[in-house]
Amino acid sequence: MKTVAYKSENLLRLGLREYAGFGMDETQMAIREFGIERYTNGASGSVIDYVVAEEPLEVRLDGHPVAVLMRTPGFDTDLVTGFLVTEGILKSPAQVRKVEADGNRILVFLNDGERVDLGKFTRNMYAGSSCGICGKATLDAIFLEFPKLETKRMPSSEILLSAPAELRSRQENFSATGGLHAAGLFGFDGELLALREDIGRHNAVDKVIGHALGEGIPTSDCWLLVSGRVSFEIMQKALAVGIPCVAAISAPSSLAVDFAKGSGQALVGFLRFPGFNRYA
Fold it and tell me: Please, are residues 174 and 180 in contact by the beta-carbon 8 Å criterion?
């Protein structure tokens, strides 16, 4: 398996440094070290433990506060790029003139003449999977913004079943902490093109999508694998950039299944060798 190098015209234009698709040069930002007391078989002792980092990231767009994302530090420009596109705030990273990182704050500046609808910031994220969004009218409204897919695509069973082991083998931070979700973009030939980890499932998806957009990876020719469960929001984020298939090692929600059936996306759950469930 080789790592594919994609030319990063957009990131170079923004003055941001290039990095490898798997992002191992920023993994140290994701881990914190603590001295703890460990109890085992009735005995205790002092040891060093590694814990996944969680910090707030404030996102500002042309000076306007957009959101505060609780995330694992690292690849913050990927996260913000993916977040702004998959939430429908931006259509493309090409609308952005400059991105500045200021500690736990990302400042995004649009090109002259670009306008965005600030009203979309009012709970455009639907407050997470427990907020109770449902109904055909709501899904129809989403499909107006992110059109349904006309062409259905799904990897072969062999490629699907081989992907979880490949994803897991690349999760260096999960190995150290046990506390991170992963999202990977695969080609339909089974090649892992990019992987991102984060304490938040949606953040991991935004990070890997943001990386793909910046690097010019054609997302319509990829499928997405997530290490946890699939909710409605993850299906929506995938549809926003034309990803035709989403697979999960865990379960989908009912609204994720409804969404996939309406959007034309393939949806696979419980992807664990030797089998899986196809929901759409």
Answer: yes
CA distance 74 to 81: 13
Residue 142 lies in a domain: no
Q: Which domain holds residue 204?
A: 157-278
In a domain? residue 240: yes
In a domain, 194, yes or no: yes
pLDDT in tens, the chain (280 residues): 232 322 333 332 333 333 334 444 565 677 788 888 888 888 888 988 888 888 999 999 999 998 899 998 989 999 999 999 998 889 999 999 999 998 899 999 999 999 887 766 644 444 343 344 444 456 777 777 889 999 899 999 999 999 999 998 887 666 666 668 899 999 999 999 999 999 899 999 999 999 999 999 999 999 999 998 999 999 999 999 999 999 999 999 988 999 999 999 999 999 999 999 999 9
* Edge-to-edge order in the sheet of strand 245-248: 192-198, 181-187, 222-226, 245-248, 266-272, 275-278
| Strand pairing category for 64-71 and 105-110 | unpaired
Active-site annotation holds for 131 = yes
